[in-house]
Amino acid sequence: MFSIELGEEVANLICNCCGTPFKSVCGFIQKDGWAYSIYFATLQTGHDKTSMGLTISIGKWWDDSNESILQREWVYLDVWPSEDDSGYEMRIEDPESSRHAKSAFLGRKLEPEEARNSSKRDDFFAVSDFILDNDPAVRSYLEGQEINIAGRVCKR
Predict the structure, then answer these.
(1) What is the Cα–Cα distance from 2 to 6, expressed in whole angstroms?
(2) What is the pLDDT of residue 155?
(3) 66 CB-side CA count, 13 A
(4) In sequence order, which residues have a C-beta less than 8 Å from that of residue 115 and are 6 or more positions away?
(5) Max alpha carbon distance in the chain (Å)?
(6) How many CA atoms lie within 13 A of 109 on its CB side?
(7) How many structural domains compose the chain?
């Protein structure tokens, strides 16, 4: 049902709040062969706690018309490994916490309560699960390994 196209770059960035370095990757998700979603994952490599910010936009992605942008919605998730190593935990966060909060092309940002009640809620979590399983940079980071950036170029 889903397929993934990994973004080519790994951005090496500095946190505005605490000055620690982190990495950011992106990718594209297709559903049944159609452009469906874009995501940005911030891998908090400079912090003691392993956590990732995940911005996911779902909607009409096959063109960039205003009509298509209006049909997109996005959420911001905090993701971290579960304490018992059984998988991952996720929490819907304030979209203003995303480093992409001002990116109009993502569509309408959903506040946590809106996202929990959205008809796309299950889709957001299905896409996030797919990303966690299929993006090697995301998966390796959350598993506490060296970040797998195969096929991507590091940018400073």
Answers:
(1) 13
(2) 67
(3) 0
(4) 75, 92, 121, 124
(5) 45
(6) 19
(7) 1
Which residue range is the domain that position 71 belongs to?
Answer: 2-155
What is the 3-class SS of the chain, one letter each residue?
CEEEEECCEEEEEECCCCCCEEEEEEEEEEECCEEEEEEEEEECCCCCCCCEEEEEEECCCCCCCHHHHHCCEEEEEEEEECCCCCCEEEEEECHHHCCCCCCHHHCEECCHHHHHHCCCHHHHHHHHHHHHHHCHHHHHHHCCCCCCCCCCEEEC
Model confidence at 22, in pLDDT bands (50, 70, 90)?
confident
Does the pLDDT at position 142 exceed 70?
yes
The amino acid at residue 38 is I
